Amino acid sequence: MLWLVVIIILVLIVGTVAFYISTYNGMVKSRNWADESWSQIDVQLKRRNDLIPNLLSTVKGYAKYEQETFTKVVEVRNQLLEMPSDDRQATMAVSNQLSESLKSILSLTESYPDLKANAEYMKLMEELTNTENKIAYARQLFNSSATRFNNKIETFPGNIIAGAHNFQKTAYLATPEVEKEVPKVSFD
């Protein structure tokens, strides 16, 4: 009978250790997925930053009087390049400013119709639009990965293991208030 009790105790110990290891490894994997999804955002931000000089040099020939617009785009781009890589919220805030600044470059085609006919400009605009879409998708992926990780460290019994190993919640990337506003439409 004693050997049965010993076997039961050993099975419980091995089961508990296996559960602990599995839960811990699941948290590490979830955290790594969130970090990897952030790196996807970082890659797309770099891609956009690389496109901007080509876009500006193409547009400058047509829109000589838009120097203030160009200067603002360059300043915000440079600010983004200097951001510390671990400050995700600040990086996305500056990235959102850059997106807003780029909208003014996009609107130049209305003032300069010849620009719309420029094949290089249209190609760059298409690449930039695709990159902006990839950034939006990567943000969604990051928030999904952050949710998965946060759920693992906040639910029982994972919260006990997370507390023991100092796992911290991952903050979500929020949509700027400006982007939440409903655009005004006029039929005048």
Ordered list of secondary-structure elements with their pairings:
Layout: H1 2-60, H2 67-81, H3 88-106, H4 108-111, H5 113-116, H6 119-154, H7 158-164, H8 177-180
Helix pairs in contact: 1-2, 1-6, 2-3
Radius of gyration, Cα only, in angstroms? 25 Å
Strand proportion, as a percent range, falls in under 5%
Distance between the termini: 91 Å
Q: If helices are DSSP runs of H or I spanning 4 or more residues, what is the number of helices?
A: 8
What does the average pLDDT come to?
88
| Secondary-structure-derived class | mainly alpha
Most strands sheet = none
Number of strands: 0
Please bin the fraction of helical residues.
Answer: over 70%
> What is the H/E string?
HHHHHHHH
Low-confidence stretches: none
Note the overall shape: rod-shaped
Structural notes for this entry:
With 188 residues, the protein is mainly α. It is 79% helix and 0% strand. It has helices at residues 2-60, 67-81, 88-106, 108-111, 113-116, 119-154, 158-164, 177-180.
